[in-house]
Amino acid sequence: MKNNFILTILLSLLFCNSAFADEISISEQYARETIPGTTISSAYMSIENSMDKDVALVSIASTVSTRIELHEHLMTNGMMQMQQVESIIVKANDKTVLQPHGYHVMIFNLDEPLVAGTEIDMALKFDNDQTVNIKLPVQGLKKKTNSHSHKH
Ligand SMILES: [Cu+2]
Known about the structure:
binds copper (II) ion; 10-stranded mixed sheet; mainly beta
């Protein structure tokens, strides 16, 4: 009985979202359209960990860029700044949301600007040797470019 229950859960996980890879699931993922005149973009997503131990996102690869970094926003002296982080932890049976003004993914050195309505790929590498492949729709810029710039 218990095994059937577990099997049902596994099957529903497998069939409801192709982005599922074992016990890490990605949802609400998207990338931003490139701001005209720049070669960067950012991406956001929700990462859910249904394992009994913490896992950390450590790197991201994509066909659109060879330089993709994990970042966080911090308030420093009343100024919103961002810095690169080595990893983003997703606690056991919890989720971490990458969103504007929080953790985010920075994409640098784009050969081609990201265009709204298209899709890009990403391979998310975690510290348990798991890689999760996802597709991210590119969304248009909702607001005018805000004044903080990316200094790298
Ligand atoms: Cu950033």
